[in-house]
Amino acid sequence: MKTRRGRINAGNKNKRLYRGYSHRRDEELSKQGYNAFALIYRPGAQTACEDLARAISFVFENAEELEVDTDSYSLWGGSAGARMAAWLGSYGPADFGGAELPQPGAVIMQYTGHSDYTECDPPTFACVGENDGIANWRTMEQRLNRMAKLGIDTEFHHYPGLSHGFGIGTDTVADGWVEEAIAFWEKQMK
Is 163 exposed, middle or buried (0-12, 13-18, 19+ CB in 10 A)? Predict the structure, then answer.
């Protein structure tokens, strides 16, 4: 069975994951034919990244059984999950106790103040609301501009009137961002 590429959601430390937007975002990806894996992670930046590294390693180790294609996989996350996705994209699962694996084809981030990057970061898509009281949209924009100057493919969207946690953006000015992120990711697969 030929499957489409996998995506790992680095996005929720809340045990009510399946009531949150991460589940709805995963459903949107599934409708497009992608495999999506969601992670409930332990609190703390280091332990959360270790959990994500183990999850990515698990998917790679069991790709045949899971019937997924890991080539050009992507990491998605919002808020703290976006920082996790970015760190794993920058440094790789091995730096957090996981396997030595290829870099993701793309990192898809929502609303985070994460500003760290490396010269080797994967292509990155980011979106945030302009009224986000937690993650300043200009911080995200500056990070992506700096990455773009290094030759890293980036795409950035900021949405007027939206605050932190707009999820998949249904019935807001961000409606359609998931499709834009998928298109960005698919561009990296070529």
Answer: middle
Could you give the CA distance from residue 33 to residue 21 in angstroms, rounded to a whole number? 19
What's the CA gap between 81 and 66, in Å, rounded? 23
State the residue for tokens 């975002």.
Answer: 25
Q: Is 52 helix (H, G, I), strand (E, B) or coil?
A: helix
The pTM is what?
0.88
Q: Any idea which residue has 């999850």 for tokens?
A: 55
CA dihedral 80, 81, 83, 84 (to 10 degrees): 120
pLDDT in tens, the chain (190 residues): 233 444 454 443 333 233 344 667 777 787 888 888 888 888 899 999 999 999 999 999 999 998 888 999 999 999 999 999 999 999 999 999 999 999 999 999 999 999 999 999 999 999 999 999 999 999 999 999 999 999 999 999 999 999 998 888 889 999 999 999 999 999 998 7
Given a contact cutoff of 8 angstroms between Cβ atoms, the answer to whether 129 and 162 are in contact is yes
